[in-house]
Amino acid sequence: IILPLEWFPLNKPSAGDYFHMAYNVITPFLLLKLIERSPKTLPRSMVYVSIIMFVMGASIHLVGDSVNHRLIFSGYQHHLSVRENPIIRNLKPETLIDSFELLYYYDEYLGHSMWYIPFFLILFIYFTGCFTPVEEESRMPVPALLLMGPSSLYYWYLVTEGQIFILYIFTFFAMMALVMHQKRKGLVLDSNGLFLFYSFIITLLLIALWVAWLWNDKILRKKYPGVIYIPEPWAFYTLHMNNLH
């Protein structure tokens, strides 16, 4: 959206797509290295299946996002459902709309589930090994404190754009329960565990602020009905900031 359209034509991958491709290669490798450092781990076969599912889900999401974000240049509005979008509603034959709904399903539901469930599972397994009986190891260095802001912002974007609040909050509750359980044994979180735990706490605060800010937005309320109301940043963008690109 920021870079000139002439550099990345609509029928070619965008700059964001190339970053996403790099993410799909680098992140699984980092997750494998992360799980190797944890004293508690899943069976090797389960780790491999989780990483394979992660790559599949992230790749499905890459294709769906690439098409959806390119549709913005044609007037697609993320704050509306697929069938409510003017450019989709006028398609002929109408069966083409079903194809776009299938694309949306692969992107927003199947892709997200296959991507985020293994991701949070590996994070939690890693977290279970981040406990120590030594009080001095339960301190974060200054660089970790500085990185906590970007880390929390990243998780905020994953939860809001991915619409995975249920998965995130259950992971967070499991982490809290584990912390209280280990405390009875005389164990405390080490610096790595503190970094992850505090990042999740700040993420929850960011989500609360985001929801409070958009609480009375009637259009987004219509797009996200139900008890859990957490608008996507992309929907906010096409509704309130679309004139910037």
From TrEMBL:
GO terms for biological process: lysosome organization. The keyword Membrane applies. One of its GO terms (cellular component) is endoplasmic reticulum. InterPro entries: CLN6 (IPR029255). Pfam families: CLN6 (PF15156). Keywords: Membrane, Transmembrane, Transmembrane helix. The chain crosses the membrane at residues 18-35, 47-64, 115-134, 164-181, 193-215. Coiled coil: none annotated. This is Ceroid-lipofuscinosis neuronal protein 6. It comes from Calypte anna (Anna's hummingbird). The lineage of its organism: Eukaryota, Metazoa, Chordata, Craniata, Vertebrata.
